[in-house]
Amino acid sequence: MHLKALADRAHLLRAWRRWHVEQLEEALVDVHADVMSRLMAQLEELRSVRELVDFISAQDWNAVDADTRAIALHEINKAIIKVRERMNEKEPINDPLPGQPENALRIIETILSSFPSNGRAHRNQFGK
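User: That's the sequence. What structure does it adopt?
Assistant: Structure tokens below.
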């Protein structure tokens, strides 16, 4: 690959990572800061994906806008991949085949996507 193309990709990757950090920082001080702070604490101490699924199931995600749920899912995905890498660095992503039991990430995706997609526009109508 050409050096310019590699430099462009590296630049885009850094920008993408910065954007995700900014999104998380905003979510941690926004309307849903409480649930996001608890989630980040849970992810920092992540020892069991079963505990994480239980934590996610216990939250009122209906009250959380779709953008914040997407930020949460991104952070959850990063944390689960870190756990998987510690368990088997050669296969950090190992989604089940059809007919096999769902894994934690897919269960969490189902939970978070089961609510209406109200987006940031919902929050902005109240001036927040």
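DSSP finds six helices and no strands in the chain.
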